[in-house]
Specification:
It is built from 2 helices and 6 strands; from the N terminus they run βββαβαββ. It is of the alpha+beta class. Strands 1-2-3-6-4-5 form a 6-stranded mixed β-sheet, covered by helices on one side. β4, α2 and β5 form a beta-alpha-beta unit. The longest helix has 18 residues. The chain starts with a strand and ends in an 11-residue tail after the last strand.
């Protein structure tokens, strides 16, 4: 199976031994995206703004791989506080209006940079075979 690192300036850069994303065959695995503005390094205030920024970063990584939010099959949302679930969910729902992906939402004790949310995803590329070549 072919593997390809996915990287884009449109999302916060990886700061450790991991990739922003990895394409493996017809799947794209996007690492957890923090709500960090890739241009300024700033984190917005509040769960709604942070969810929006994390989804924008996630979208940029997916687009760099030739995928999109519409091709996401599974997400995992990490929340610092489950009391933020409803507000996060409202913003999230706007980005997945039809046939939303499977999702797990997990409350965690702490996230990098003390952000409120992190979102990772697995997407399926259309028009590729399991070997990663065009069909």
């Amino acid at each position: 199976m072919n593997r390809r690192v996915v990287s884009t300036a449109g999302a916060a850069q990886a700061v450790g031994p991991y990739s922003q994303g990895l394409q493996a065959g017809s799947l794209v695995f996007a690492s957890g995206q923090l709500p960090v503005d890739p241009g300024t390094g700033e984190v917005p205030d509040g769960i709604e703004a942070q969810t929006l920024r994390a989804l924008a970063n996630l979208s940029a990584v997916l687009e760099a791989a030739g995928a999109s939010l519409a091709s996401v099959a599974k997400t995992t949302v990490f929340l610092k506080d489950m009391n933020d679930f409803a507000a996060m969910n409202r913003v999230y729902a706007e980005h997945f209006p039809e046939a939303p992906p499977a999702r797990s939402t997990i409350e965690v004790a702490r996230l990098p940079r003390d952000v409120l949310v992190e979102i990772e995803a697995i997407a399926v590329l259309s028009g590729t075979s399991a070997s990663g070549t065009s069909a």
